[in-house]
Each structure stands twice: as C-alpha cells, then as structure tokens.
Specification:
about 325 residues, alpha/beta, eight-stranded parallel β-barrel, binds (3S,4R)-3-hydroxy-2-oxopiperidin-4-yl beta-D-xylopyranoside
C-alpha cells in the first residue's frame, strides 16, 4: 500500500486506532482526526472534576461535544475515567461541613456518579477505563495511598467495576495504568487484576497507558508485559501512547525543534511497537495515542517546565513524520 495509507487502515478488521482529544482539538485537528483515526478518548472532559464539579451539578457540555463529533464521523469512543486519585472533586470525599465522609456515603456517591455518566453514554461508549492508576509505583504496597483507599479500603476498585457493569452491561471494562511495562509494577498490576478476576469482578481488559520515550521501556519489557497480562485471558489495549523524545526527567528546555537523531530513533521505536501490536493482534485490540500531532501534547511542560516535546506520528503542521511512514509501511 502507499505511503498515504490512513493509519486506521494499517490494521483493518476492527482494530481501533484512537486519539485523545479536547473540545478544542476536534476543531484544530479535525481533518487529521477524521482521516487517520477511528476512535476517540476525551483527554480531560470526562474526568470526575470536569464532569461532576459539585454534588448536584453534572457538566456534560464538553464531553457531549466530543461524543457528538465521534458519532458524526462514525468513530468509536473510549471513556476515561471513572475512578482516579487525580482530577477528582474534593466535595466527593467530604460532608457539607468539611468532615470526611464514611465508606457507605463514598461508595453510594460513586455508584450514583457511575450510573449517571456511564448510563448517559451507553449507546456511544464501548469501553471504559473504570479504575485508573490505583497501583503504587514503588515499594511493596499494592495500592497507592489515596482518598479512595483511605476512606473505602481496597473495595472501591471492585465496587467501581460492579457499578459500571450495572450501568452498562455491554461496555468493556478496563483497569488502566502507567509504568505498566516496568517489571515490578507489571507484577503488581497483574496481581491486582488477578485478584479481581478471582473474586468474580466484571473486568474485561487491561489498559497499558504506554507513556514511553525513545529510550525506555525496552521492547523486551513491553513484550513481557503483554505476555503476562494476556495470560489472564483479558483484552489488552494501549490507551495513552506517546513516545517522548526525551528521557523522563531530561531537563533540556533549549530545543525549538527535535534533533534528527531523536526523530530517527522515535521512528524505530514506533515501527517496533507496531510490529509487536501486529504480532499480538488477537490480544491487543486497540491503540490510542494521547493526542494526534505535535502541535499539542500534554508533554509540553510535563514533567519539565518549558520543555517542548514531539511525541506523535504527525508534526506541528499535521504532516507525516518518519515514524508515520515506518508504521504505514506495515499495512
Ligand atoms: C493528563 C492530561 O493529558 C492533561 O491535560 C492533564 O492536565 C493531566 O492529565 N495518565 C492519565 C491521563 O490517565 O488522564 C493523564 O492525562 C496523563 C497520564
């Protein structure tokens, strides 16, 4: 096939290629999105503090705009996210007088939130990141400290999946996390999900966020993570793929454009990753990029302020980069 192949045709037969979007980028990146992608995720608009800012207020405007756009263009939608320690409103964990709520109240609020949000989009959203980043990065503790854990104990995880399943019995329900290919965290994510399955919790998949860079993780570690998660018999998806041109904490803020060597290495990484995805086509059903083109990425300024990044297959003018051609040739 030619170099102009749409990204979504590289795999065909139902494989979903997605992008995270905002109500702004569906305008500024409209042509690129509709040409190359067949799935969308709201980058922030469905997170708790955005969609449910106070107990009696749901703010569906921006998420509706994204879902309507997807529907108009025949694109699938992944929902992100129902339970997370970040971007979650403080009111959820407090009584009106500011004292912390008890477990019963918190879980009832969670049930009501999930029923409302998942219920609203049940015709459009085929998969949800039900619980995001609950596993601790370092140390022996399985779960990261959070208000959820502090108030409800580990039960909040199983409950979230049960509530989501009640709200939409046909939705595919995912546990989603980052550093998913690092051996220590991989084993903890595996242990958490295995225990959920052993308890009969309705969980259907694991989302590998895939916030990677041109040095890390190694392809062997990515492969080992896919193998290990797949051994649970679950569907896997890459949910937030980007390939930074810097090591995570590289403090270089002087670059106004990427160096050629960075882009060459990035192209190699993307080709290797997509070859791997083809190899695991029966297990991995989708890849979503955490953006679409280098004109906008959350990695600008994160984690190093003032550092621009260029993590995608398309450049700041939405033109294909060498990484794109290396992926498109696999069609
Ligand atoms: C990020 C967004 O991209 C940013 O715009 C926001 O300021 C912070 O959150 N893991 C996740 C995503 O699951 O929700 C995060 O998105 C990136 C890391």
């Amino acid at each position: 096939k030619t170099a102009e192949a749409a990204l979504k045709d590289v795999f065909a037969d139902g494989f979903k290629i997605g992008a995270a979007v905002s109500s702004g980028t569906i305008r500024t990146q409209e042509n690129l999105l509709t040409r190359h992608f067949n799935s969308l995720t709201a980058e922030n608009e469905m997170k708790f503090e955005n969609i449910h800012p106070s107990e009696d207020v749901y703010a569906f405007g921006e998420s509706d705009t994204i879902v309507d756009f997807a529907r108009r263009h025949g694109m699938a939608v992944r929902g992100h996210t129902l339970v997370w320690h970040n971007q979650t409103s403080d009111w959820l964990f407090q009584e009106a007088d500011g004292r912390p709520v008890g477990k019963g109240v918190l879980l009832e609020r969670l049930r009501s939130h999930i029923e409302t949000v998942v219920g609203r989009y049940k015709d459009d959203i085929y998969a949800w990141d039900v619980v995001n980043e609950a596993v601790a990065d370092e140390g022996d503790e399985l779960l990261r400290p959070s208000k959820w854990l502090e108030i409800a104990g580990p039960d909040f995880i199983a409950k979230a999946f049960e509530f989501a399943h009640e709200a939409d019995p046909t939705a595919r329900l995912f546990y989603n996390d980052y550093n998913e290919s690092h051996p220590h965290k991989r084993d903890k994510i595996y242990a958490l999900v295995k225990s959920l399955l052993d308890q009969g919790v309705p969980i259907h998949g694991i989302g590998l966020q895939a916030h990677w860079n041109i040095f890390d993780p190694s392809l062997d570690d990515i492969r080992a993570a896919i193998e290990k998660y797949a051994s649970l018999g679950l569907e896997l998806q890459l949910t937030e793929l980007d390939v930074s041109v810097f090591r995570f904490d590289d403090r270089r803020t002087d670059l106004l454009e990427p160096e050629p060597g960075m882009l060459e290495r990035q192209a190699e990484v993307y080709e290797a990753v997509f070859r791997l995805l083809k190899e695991y086509r029966g297990t991995v059903s989708s890849v979503t990029f955490w953006g679409a083109a280098d004109d906008y990425t959350w990695l600008d300024d994160f984690p190093v302020r003032g550092r621009k990044n260029w993590p995608f297959l398309f450049d700041e003018r939405h033109l294909p980069k060498s990484a794109y051609y290396r992926v498109a040739q696999l069609a």
